[in-house]
Amino acid sequence: MNKPLPLLLVTGIAFGCNFPLAKLAVAAGVNPAIWAIVICLGAGLALLAVANLFEDAPAVPGIFRYALISGFISNVVPLFLTFAAIPHIGSGLAAILVALSPVTTALLSILLKVRPPTALGLLGIGFGLAGALLIIIARNAGFDATETRWLLLAMLIPVFLGFGNVYRSWAWPRGAGPMRLGAMVNLAAVLPLAVAGYAWNGLDPWPLLGVPWLVLIQLAASTVMYLTFFRLQAVGGPTYLSQIGYVAAVLSVAIGMLFLGESFPAMVWAGVAVVAIGIGLSTLAQVRAARLAR
Question: To the nearest 5 percent, what fractions of the chain are helix, strand and coil?
């Protein structure tokens, strides 16, 4: 599967599952860093198995440096901050901050000249952001003003996501396959997350035993996400990839309607429509760029 739109939808849906799953896990007493380790270790091992079956393993200079830097920027900091901040600022505000990552990614792509978006692509990003904000605001972010320090820390989430998206395209080691690269990036994040978890509240894995079904669902979701994530990076570039946050915002509506019995005001459905327009414009920009490159 090498088409940008299906890759974006699959990756975004799997990514969107992280928010409700993390909220449930942290509420059950799981250390945020340990939950992030579950994601990175599980996905890393799964991707490594797939890479050993379907990808060659050439000697690629710089791949270990790439994995360490990318793992820290893309996985360690954003995952830990997101899962740690959700109990304090709510999943709605966390989703808003993640939804800002396409904007930071586009700005950095333009500044650093790493597959910068076209004017049509920027228009799509703007529509997607507007739609995502409509959805999240209409569903109420539930922010407690007493947790301002957590909000300030969480503001780093879209910054690190943007840098990670751009860095992965800019420094992609020549000859490295997406599955093997994804495995190494995820596995490289495990040790720093373990250090962060120990410093945060100790590395106590026992709460995981109380939510085995949650662990299994998270492992499945993160494995599916990373199976397509690095392929989407290679095919769509950093800015298009970053729009998985918009897909995740729409997914939150579907989860609420199908599993939580929620009903939504017209503003939410307007947001869904605007997100769809934005993704459509961005996909059209990708198609046009691919034609011009031939």
Answer: 80, 0, 20
What does the alpha-carbon distance between residue 93 and residue 15 come to, in Å, rounded to a whole number? 16
- Give the angle subtended at the CA of 44 by the CAs of 38 and 45, to the nearest 5°: 95
Q: Which residue has the tokens 């961005």?
A: 282
Q: CA separation (Å) from 278 to 25, 158, 231, 245, 265? A: 32, 19, 21, 12, 21
Name the residue among 285, 294, 171 with its Cα closest to residue 234: 171
pTM for this predicted structure: 0.85
Whether the Cβ atoms of residue 284 and residue 128 lie closer than 8 Å to each other = no
Measured between alpha carbons, how far apart are the two ends of the chain, in Å? 19
**Domain boundaries in the chain?**
4-287
CA distances from 120 to 151, 168, 172, 270 (A): 32, 23, 25, 21
For residue 172 the two structure tokens come to 């992609």
What stretches of the chain adopt beta strand conformation (E)? none
pLDDT digits (tens, 9 = 90+) for 73-126: 999 999 888 888 877 877 667 777 787 888 889 989 988 888 888 888 899 898
| Token code pair at residue 134 | 């409509």
